[in-house]
Amino acid sequence: MLNELTQNFSTKSQPIYFVLAPNMQNSTLNSNLMKINAVIQKFADDNSYETIKSSEVLSPGNKFVKSINNKILRTDDGVHISVNGGKILSDFIFNKISSLINLDNINDDEAIKVIKVPGCCVAPKTKSKTLTTRKPTSPSSSYTTTSSTTATPTPTPIPTPTPIPDEELTE
Fold this sequence. Notes:
Strand order of the largest sheet: 1-2
Order of helices and strands: HEHEHEEHEE
CATH class: Alpha Beta
Shape: globular
CATH architecture: 3-Layer(aba) Sandwich
Distance between the termini: 6 Å
Helix content: 25-40%
Radius of gyration: 22 Å
Number of domains: 1
CATH topology: Rossmann fold
């Protein structure tokens, strides 16, 4: 799968970077992702690609942490990254890449099309919430009641992960 992914970019003069996953709160999921990270790292090493270890900023000491210095980095599900975590990670990635290539040299190269992995990054389900407000129709009149409905995200539970057998992991 990694070969197929990188073959699409082999004709481009752009370097390829893999961002490895940080540690997860659930031990089985964490074990699975560390195995996947190892496969990606080996593939990158074998093919002279770069890897960026998100754990350097999101999982100090290779341990799951929810916050650092009172900044929440991860969401309550123990998997996803919060807005603060995303900012920290994006700055880290930018700094890592800019230390390897000159990002000030803007060019007109076509951007690489985003590839969405099936089952990943699904928007959270929403539920309706009705807000009722009261306001006067004029300074001396009675109040009128208005209602509006907004969608609020409902957390989607993370399914219990199943361990990945080592023999199933290949490039």
